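Researcher: Good morning. I'm working through a list of sequences from a screen, and I'd like to move beyond sequence-only analysis. For each chain I'm collecting a predicted structure so we can compare shapes side by side. This is the next one on the list. No need for commentary yet; just the structure.
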Amino acid sequence: GAGVGLCGMVASLLGARQVVLTDCSYDSLQGMLANVVRNRHDNRVLSSASWGVDGDLVCIQRHLWENDIVRSPGRPLPQHWSSATSCTWGPEGMPPNLPVDSVFDVVIGSDLLYFASQITPLLSTLSTRMKPGGRALLTVCVRRNRAVYESFLLGISQVALTLVNEEAIAIDDLDLVHAASNVSETRHAQELRLVHLTKS
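Model: Good morning. Structure tokens for this chain:
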């Protein structure tokens, strides 16, 4: 998911026509909303429109990758840990869901892959949500279990996507400090990879 929304907000500042930030976690979405509202620079009162309305440069919507996996007719959407919320909602209400027909010219992702169980849902979402001719730019933190990353790469062609480029990204000194710490997301990091995909 989009976490705190940094990648999307930077894309907006760099000139993206519209950015849709998604995450499955209600806690993350609530924190993301605070960041987007703080950086939106308008005087909008907190309401359901705070998640974004047509014409806004940045919108926030909830999305679960597993919802993009092809299912048999009549089969319900999957149950997921993120569907339970402990958040208290104010005048903004709960975030809207990403519409099933939403597709994008560019999908940006950063540090999305932690477990083997995420590979199929992530690839399904990339394939489903990219327009024909669309691109995905992903940074992937390769952790101790490199097999997860390698399985992700092998699965790309199985969902009608093309790997354009895949290369190492230099880890800066701050990243090395985090990798040596007890920060759960980074302590097992071995390397960073940049992955560029297209959909024909």
